[in-house]
Amino acid sequence: IDLFYRFYNEGLQLEASAKERKKTGKPVELTEREKTILYHLPKLKKAAKELSEIRKQIRAVQESPKYTPEQKRSIINGLEIREINIARKAIGRAQ
């Protein structure tokens, strides 16, 4: 998940930088790696939104009095596995 967020944050920074350079009329020069990250940024944004929703679900489970600690751990483990799979898929490491 950390690797996903590194790519995601780098993509957001590249996007902001490119927009600023276009606005000021400066040429936007990108490396092949930067072009690839920007190309995949919409997919990364979608995944980030999904991860945010899962984190909300995890917080709701943690705060819920209706589950035992064992039930909470089981539910949270399942949600964390979903998070990992979403992040892997978004950066091309789905297994």
Description:
80% of the residues lie in helices and 0% in strands.
Shape: elongated
The counted number of beta strands is: 0
SSE-based structural type: mainly alpha
Task: Report the portion of residues in β strands.
Answer: under 5%
Distance between the termini: 14 Å
Uncertain segments are none
- Given the structure, what is the number of helices? 3
- CA radius of gyration is 18 Å
Binned, the helix content reads over 70%
Q: What's the overall average pLDDT, rounded?
A: 93
Largest sheet: none
Order of secondary-structure elements: HHH
Short description:
80% of the residues lie in helices and 0% in strands. It has 3 helices and no strands. Helix 1 packs across helix 2 (32-63).
